Amino acid sequence: EQIEKGGYEHFMLKEIFEQPKSVHDTMRGRLLVDEGVIKMAGIWDYIEKFKNANRIIIIACGTSWHAGLIGEYLIEEYARIPVEVEYASEFRYRNPIITDKDVVIAISQSGETADTMAALKLAKEKGAFIYGICNVVDSSIARITDAGSYTHAGPEIGVASTKAFTAQLTILTLIAFKLGKHNGNLGNAEFMSLIAELDAIPRKIEDVLATTHELVQNIAKDFVSATNFLYLGRGYNYPAALEGALKLKEISYIHAEGYPAAEMKHGPIALIDENMPIVIIAPKKGHYDKIVSNVQEIKARKGKVIAVVNKGDTQVSAMADYVIEIPETSECFSPIVASVPLQLLAYYIAVYRGANVDQPRNLAKSVTVE
Ligand code: G6P
């Protein structure tokens, strides 16, 4: 096992550090920047299904569901196809309206999650075209779907999903750009600039790992005894906030809530005092001014702000108690880059609390019972 961990103390840390490679592997052979092409046989062979779809329904559980929410932002923005995202367990039991004009995408690292599998079977029976985004090759979900794209993240051992999540985001980004290019909603110049930027994301993740690793460890030390955390973000980074909170809950057993930053006023703000740590994702692109006022509201109530900002940020950084800098990207890529320091933060808080990060209590890597 020590050999498999490759010198890292835990699989989770190894998997966090593998992300430059896993994101790159997921794009390899698919993203051809010089030719200006995204090659995805699973999409291309069934392009008419996607083109004529009334809507796309994404179903998943856990971290994969968070990836699905970001998929909704991506596909609606770039391909202008309506998207709904559902928990598999709710979808399957609520008699959903599904027709043969629907495309259902299931996202699952393991490809074995019982609720996701059952939801897919239901969609298939009702005539929908079903598509899988799985990490485990030849898994049950990969086999039952009409078509799909594998994430090539490699085996994920840590129960808390990290590299599978960023690989799922990579696939969803490729799908959104490919569909948008094909149906004319994404013009050539923008497409070319987006794919060049996507191609550079693995290097940005590398940069984040190198520049934030030690800093985040030090921040983690100050929050070992925290009992609650809030995670806030807007737009694409609202689901990233949900995922950041889930990571912390899963492995450190600290209660954490993710919220869209503006919704803070409708509840969580009542909890803010000097004992409440608040992680806020505040990159330059994506509602920055709005986030600035959210941070002002938090500081007025003495909350402890840990801000994830772009390099060179001034406004949020001036108010924050802790600042984690990430490189600037277009908004659609920021969840991939911003998730990395949040994974590290959850990891180190859990390690300092003496928790079993690779196998947290009560959780399973693959939930094959409903
Ligand atoms: C479990 C795992 C999570 C995972 C979820 C969905 O809860 O602990 O890490 O996100 O199942 O799993 P899947 O394999 O379908 O992505």
From TrEMBL:
Question: What are the SIS domain coordinates in residue numbering?
Answer: 46-185, 219-360
**Places the protein is found:** Cytoplasm
EC number of this enzyme:
2.6.1.16
Molecular function GO terms recorded: glutamine-fructose-6-phosphate transaminase (isomerizing) activity
Which enzyme type, at the first EC level? transferase
Record keywords, A-Z = Aminotransferase, Cytoplasm, Glutamine amidotransferase, Repeat, Transferase
Where does this chain mainly localize? cytoplasm
Can you tell me which residues form the catalytic site?
Answer: 365
Q: Transmembrane segments in this chain: where?
A: none
Q: Coiled-coil segments, which residues?
A: none
Purpose: Catalyzes the first step in hexosamine metabolism, converting fructose-6P into glucosamine-6P using glutamine as a nitrogen source.
Q: How does it assemble?
A: Homodimer.
Output this protein's name.
Glutamine--fructose-6-phosphate aminotransferase [isomerizing]
Lineage runs:
Bacteria, Pseudomonadati, Bacteroidota, Flavobacteriia, Flavobacteriales
* Gene that specifies this protein: glmS
Location of this fragment in the whole protein = 248 to 617 of 617
